[in-house]
Amino acid sequence: MGWELHDIGIVGAGMMGRSLAIKVAQEGLNVCLKEVSLERVEAARREMETALDNAIARFSITEAEKKAILSRIRWVTEFECTAGCDLAIDAVQEDFEQKKEIVLELDSRMRPDHPIVINTSTLSITELAAKCRNPERVVGMHFLYPVTRTRVVEVVRGQLTSDLVYERALEFARILDKVPIKVFEMPGFVTTRVVLPLINEAIHVVMEGVASAAEVDLALKLGYDFRTGPLEWADRTGLDRVLNWMQHMFQETGEPRFRPCPLLKRLVRGGLLGTKTGRGFFRYDEKGRRTDRLPDDRPGMI
Amino acid sequence: MKILVLNSGSSSVKFQVIETDLERMKEHRDEMLAKGLVEKIGLSTSRLVLEVPGRERYQDYREILEHRAAIEWALRLLADPDHGVLERIDEIEAVGHRVVHGGEEFASSVLITPEVVQKIEATSVLAPLHNPPNLRGYQAARSILPDVPHVAVFDTAFHQTMPAHAFLYGIPFQFYTKYHLRRYGFHGTSHRYVAFRLCQVMGWKKEERRIITCHLGNGCSLAAIDQGRSIDTSMGFTPLEGLLMGTRSGDMDPAIVPWLMAMEELTLHQINTMLNKHSGLYGVSGISSDMRELMKARAEGNRRADAAFRMFCYRLKKYIGAYAAAMGGADAVVFTGGIGENAPEVREWALDHMEYMGVRLDKERNRQVVGAEGEITADGSPVRVMVIPTNEERVIARDVVRVLNGIMPTFEPPETVA
What we know:
The complex is a heterodimer. By secondary structure, chain A is of the alpha/beta class. Chain A folds into two domains: 7-184, Rossmann fold (3-Layer(aba) Sandwich), CATH 3.40.50; 191-293, N-(1-d-carboxylethyl)-l-norvaline Dehydrogenase, domain 2, CATH 1.10.1040. Helices cover 44% and strands 13% of the residues of chain A. Chain A is globular, with a radius of gyration of 20 Å. Chain B is α/β, with parallel strands linked by helices. Chain B has two domains: 2-154, 2-Layer Sandwich (Nucleotidyltransferase, domain 5); 205-387, Nucleotidyltransferase, domain 5. In chain B, the strands form two sheets. Chain B has an eight-stranded mixed beta sheet with strand order 5-4-3-2-1-6-8-7, sandwiched between helices. In chain B, β10 and β11 (229-233) form a beta hairpin. Chain B is globular, with a radius of gyration of 22 Å. The model of chain B has no long low-confidence stretch (mean pLDDT 93). Classes of the chains: A alpha/beta, B alpha/beta.
């Protein structure tokens, strides 16, 4: 034993990596956040500043908390600092080869019983762990974006994951004040597997001209108490990411229900990727606010 | 006897060593031997500060990961031949713990037993941010000092004498029976201290007096103390109710909450943080939660700072009037806390035009009493107004002595409604 959680390594300071780093630092743990180059570090640091300022403007945190969060995050470009980490998370995008490389780097440096966490929604933990010296310390955690707000995390047990490491991953989830959903490795786990066909079906409805995108979302919001409609949710997640997941799920399972709707492909090919490009199924301003809501879709009306 | 007083927060521990006993209490001769704090617990840069009267301040940094290590560090230093005030740690004969929420279980301070710990744990649902770290501090101190008595002193206990018509909310009664959802009030230790100190200074019997105490610090609250008992206080179920505060809204129309949540699509966490950390003097002025900075900006002509200042004083005035009404008049008003002790302007604004109820402020005296004990009303004023610096640690130490001597004030239990 003698394992305590104080220092967390996070590899990748993209949208997910930054959000994770903020959440981890917010809970009082130290973060060592790795990007590939100084330029990427600088860019990510600016993005994080903006995200924290927006959080202040939305009353999620205070100025003092922002300072405390930033003071707990150390930015690096090398893997070295992960050697002293009690737990490390790979938070780069959903790319098998890239993740495999990272897992091996972490495995060669960290103490053998310190967990390596892979943040993924569709990739195989078992396959990523297979080549490690200590494959039993590799475990999956599917965090949902934004990590600062979503209360749930799927904790994924691979074929080789040990009970001890799985327990440690659950402990980490609890420290982050998240509700862990225990799942066995299977493409999509629970959340991604269930939400993708829903989004896909919503896109089909739009493509077939049954109803407009705005009306599809509004129907589900008002009818089933969704906070965000599935199409806006896809826009906010990034349509390229949604497409990527769906293609992967389709490949892995061969199930036609995961076959991406042609309209989704068309939008991605046209560079209409959702909130981040200002246009997807809906239009957004530079702060990410919807500019084309229906009159009945206004805040306060729902 | 030497008593260790502990105030354990989530990432800090404040401590004092106080020498007191029944004899000293009677003569107001309690002596603070040392005070200090360990902050940033859980980080590698934890800091310990120790202040001993007549000596230079001592500071040290090291990695402190939990409360036990923090309290051990503090005790080791207290017994250090160069910096400490004790020859041996076992000179400490008892420990007093500040516990924020005592719920309806505790109407006075109490010797901590396993049953008491259980009850405090059960109350944590009412104060999820405060009671758990208070308890962690207790567990740590108990493991280091297992053979001395430990006493819990609650922020809420003093207000347990409030009658039902003051502590109930006008919402369906089932929530009171189901969750103990009611007004509790806070700062009880401070209100109790300044009210009783006032009586001591004036030579009054507390059983014959009606006193309004104003604790104005980071958090602000008033208490109406009739015959030595708190009959009403301005904070409620949480410390958010009542006066305008540094970053807290105080009283407002509760309908604002759902309305704003819908309009701005705010989450529960966001609206909660908005009301507790982005509101009050800071939220209104947009400048600062600190009254000193606010008054500087106001003097420079900043209109929002001025509005925030006026709101603060106006609400204070309204509560003073309300509590005078509740008690059929008042014999005295006491100001304490950082703002109450150090901001004569606030006192002047709040007490302006109160001759109708017998307050005759002496503006010159008021200006001169800053950070010290002193009266600020004119000679012959029917209602006396005093500034009394608060000292919660002293009350905690004294309560330890009282509990150990079996002389806690016993009030009638509050009337039951359910």
